[in-house]
Amino acid sequence: MSRNGVVMLALLTLVVVLSAVEVVHVKYLTRIQFAHLQDLRAQRDAIDVEWNRLRLEEAALSTHARVERKAHQELGMFTPRLSDVLLVEEAGHGQP
Asked: DSSP letters along 53-69, please?
């Protein structure tokens, strides 16, 4: 084998080794990013669970019966008696 052949073989061997090292490095980076993605998905799922729990709690706290009970107990509000209601009628268009 000539000197040029040996140099070419050494150069090709170096390129193959560097390529293999880069493949390993990229694979390592991919695994790190995939682990990070899994963590983010787990956080998203936890946030979704919390959001659904809060929506259920809001629905339970805003029921008509609960709001009415709170109005009576905490604010002293009451349903007006029929004698307390004043009906105001609006005159129609063009009518006095």
From this structure: HHHHHHHHHT-HHHHHH
| pLDDT recorded at residue 62 | 87
First to last CA, the chain: 118
Task: Quote the CA–CA distance of 85 and 88 in Å, as a whole number.
Answer: 10
**What is this structure's pTM?**
0.56
Domain ranges of the chain: 29-77
- What size, in residues, is the chain? 96
- How far apart, in whole angstroms, are the C-alpha atoms of residue 4 and residue 1? 8
DSSP secondary structure letter of residue 89: P
Q: Is the dihedral of CA 58, 64, 68, 73 positive or negative?
A: negative
